[in-house]
Write a sequence for this structure.
């Protein structure tokens, strides 16, 4: 997949790889209704790329995880939600992506155990560059967030970092020798 695409993408099947080669995802004029976006909900945020299993949004209970999904090589920009959002996703790999000017976050993982966020850049977000919530054993490796978006939000707490792998304060579980964060 390459070029510029006006769409909001949802991945709901196991074992898929979505590969962008210089592809840019921007918001569509009319977002598609799917597991990650309900147009009947007023003010619903639209995510650029969403990986989602089945979860009760009122209770947070997961009834089915989508597993072993990879999203690689995209620039995702200007969405009202997250550039890339994982909800009820297990052992997903998000690598080599760029998220720019997405309102909620650059990349987010919620109820996404074993997720790996690798070699990504996120900037221009109103909240955190990288958000991790209710997601044990998540790894963030080699990620970069410039000034103004230089933090990871984990369990509702923001952690300041110079750049993941750079200088700055360290959230719990960061191994300073490997630029690897293991969030539990």
């Amino acid at each position: 997949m390459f070029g510029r695409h006006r769409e909001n993408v949802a991945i709901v099947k196991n074992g898929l790889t979505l590969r962008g080669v210089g592809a840019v995802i921007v918001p569509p004029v009319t977002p598609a209704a799917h597991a990650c976006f309900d147009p009947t909900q007023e003010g619903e945020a639209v995510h650029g790329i969403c990986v989602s299993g089945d979860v009760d949004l009122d209770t947070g209970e997961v009834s089915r995880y989508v597993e072993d999904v990879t999203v690689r090589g995209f620039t995702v920009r200007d969405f009202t939600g997250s550039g890339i959002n994982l909800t009820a996703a297990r052992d997903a790999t998000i690598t080599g992506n760029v998220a720019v000017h997405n309102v909620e976050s650059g990349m987010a993982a919620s109820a996404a155990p074993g997720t790996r966020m690798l070699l990504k850049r996120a900037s221009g977000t109103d909240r955190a560059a990288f958000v991790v919530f209710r997601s044990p054993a998540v790894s963030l490796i080699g990620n970069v967030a410039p000034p103004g978006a230089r933090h990871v939000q984990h369990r509702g707490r923001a952690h300041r970092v110079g750049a993941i792998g750079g200088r700055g304060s360290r959230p719990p579980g960061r191994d300073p020798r490997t630029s690897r964060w293991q969030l539990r």
Summary: The two ends are 34 Å apart (CA to CA). Residues 156-184 have pLDDT under 50 and may be disordered. The chain has one domain: 4-183.
